[in-house]
UniProtKB/TrEMBL annotation:
Similarity annotation: Belongs to the LysR transcriptional regulatory family.
A GO molecular function held by the record: DNA-binding transcription factor activity
InterPro entries: LysR_HTH_N (IPR000847), LysR_subst-bd (IPR005119), WH-like_DNA-bd_sf (IPR036388), WH_DNA-bd_sf (IPR036390)
Entry superkingdom: Bacteria
Keywords: DNA-binding, Transcription, Transcription regulation
SUPFAM superfamilies membership: Periplasmic binding protein-like II (SSF53850), Winged helix' DNA-binding domain (SSF46785)
Domain HTH lysR-type: 5-63
Protein name: HTH-type transcriptional regulator TtuA
Biological role stated in the UniProt entry: Transcriptional regulator of the ttuABCDE tartrate utilization operon.
Pfam families named among the record's database cross-references: HTH_1 (PF00126), LysR_substrate (PF03466)
Organism encoding this protein: Rhizobium redzepovicii
Length: 322
């Protein structure tokens, strides 16, 4: 018959191992020492291996089998604590899981900061995260696959979806430094870009079917995601718009060049929180919306972003020798 130790036996075993003696464990557990010894003896009988070396030692010492079992006991009892915390949270109204859809327009640093704090604040809440572009965020919220969405353009008016502006971002037209457009040392015209390949992301949600945003070139390469578009532009295969937060380091290093193109609309891009009216967010999802609002309201404006990049790229002025 396979051994079937109880959680109580494992707790007693772990307490003896951590306190260093049967007497200390009996005090910690508020049980008679004889009960502690009897529990360990029963556990050893079930497992058919000795867990402690008792002969010739004033204090019980773990055997090799005992040391191996100790890690298993810690893991099992740790899982029990997680389950207890989750049950307690559910009884208090906390969600078991938060499903969130986030647009690529949301600065990655804000996403990482919020999720890092979310993990600390709600350790018992599971997270289901989807990151995408264009209509994906609203599509997932409308379909009920996401509890909340943090994203850009509200592409379809729907009374069943509650939206609130919580911040902004913006796109910038860029190209690799070896691209022909980057070599034109002047403001670009629509004629300059018409015959150059423009990289464009296709909206997998279908909400923008038949609609193009800032597509100015006659020749377009359409890709499925912003990450592929980013890499192809850096490789010099075309030009296109990318979220400013995504290309901050590329602009600083010179891996990408901002294109001075008036025809490309570069206004601030609003970021909204979205949720279904019939599915109000619980405490964890509400906290997440507030956390994103706090961080996104401090994002720099387009003018401040350009000034910051220009300042950081200025070479340091060497000090004159005395």
């Amino acid at each position: 018959m396979l051994p079937n130790p109880t959680l109580d036996q494992l707790q007693v075993f772990l307490t003896v191992a951590e306190t260093g003696s049967f007497s200390a464990a009996s005090r910690a557990l508020n049980r008679a020492q004889s009960v502690v010894s009897y529990t360990i003896a029963n556990l050893e009988t079930q497992l058919e291996v000795p867990l402690f070396e008792r002969s010739g030692a004033r204090q019980p010492k773990l055997t090799e089998a005992g040391r191996a079992m100790l890690e298993d006991a810690r893991r099992i009892l740790g899982d029990l604590q997680v389950m207890r915390a989750r049950v307690k949270s559910l009884k208090e109204g906390l969600e078991a899981e938060v499903s969130v859809a986030i647009s690529v327009m949301v600065p990655s640093k804000a996403v990482v900061d919020v999720l890092h704090e979310f993990r600390e604040m709600f350790p018992s809440v599971s997270l289901n995260l989807n990151v995408g572009e264009l209509g994906m965020v609203m599509d997932l919220v409308m379909s009920g696959k996401a509890t909340i969405g943090i994203g850009g353009a509200v592409l379809k008016q729907d009374d069943s979806v509650v939206t609130e502006r919580i911040g902004h971002s913006f796109m910038m037209p860029v190209a690799a430094p070896n691209h022909p457009l980057a070599g034109l040392d002047r403001p670009l015209t629509l004629g300059d870009v018409r015959d150059e390949v423009q990289l464009v992301v296709t909206d997998a949600s279908g909400l923008t079917k038949g609609r193009d945003f800032n597509v100015l070139s006659y020749k377009t390469w359409r890709v499925s995601d912003i990450s592929t578009k980013h890499q192809l532009i850096k490789a010099g295969l075309g030009w296109g718009g990318l979220p400013a937060s995504l290309i901050h380091d590329d602009l600083l290093s010179g891996a990408l060049i901002h294109l001075d193109l008036d025809a490309y609309e570069q206004g601030e891009y609003p970021i909204y929180s979205m949720r279904r009216l019939a599915n109000p967010p619980g405490p964890a999802a509400t906290w997440m919306i507030d956390a994103f609002r706090t961080r996104l309201t401090h994002c720099p404006s387009q003018a401040d972003f350009h000034a910051q990049i220009a300042e950081l790229r200025e070479p340091a002025i060497p000090l004159a020798a005395e």
